[in-house]
Fold this protein.
Amino acid sequence: MRGVFSRGPPYTHLCSTYILDNAAIIKNRSVLDVGCGCGAGAIAAAMSNARTVVANDIDPFAVMATNINAELNKTKVETSTEDYIGKSCDDFDVILIGDMFYDEEFASILFAWLNRLSADNKMILIGDPGRHGLTEGRRSQMTLLASYELPQETRDENNGFTHTTVWRLNKL
């Protein structure tokens, strides 16, 4: 993938790598990438032949970066600054969450919403570098799909994170 995210967090790239390496889980599905940042997850979903992809972030600069990156990668990605958290997301089959468990209060709200979506048969994929909001209790409700070691430079720059992981939320 090319784009303005080339110096972004490597854990974002590694989660996108998981999607590209496992394209069958995305193919012909509608995907919502919440907190999309630079759009790497959404772009990976588009490259994996998702039926539709919406890259969502409440930060308009993230949406702008996503639009640039989608164009650079010749992918079709819709963008939105709507706050989807708490909504039913009826139009989507797959929800991507990348590195959003950085705050315990927000993590509680986010995880409750994701559990409701999972109960409604949505596939929830979560990329996380080991944030404290993704507690052991929350991880016990998920299946680990992949773990990637971060380069030493990234470890040094990111408070000692050593790995990034990709999880699937289990249906309750």
Summary: The chain has one domain: 11-21+28-169.
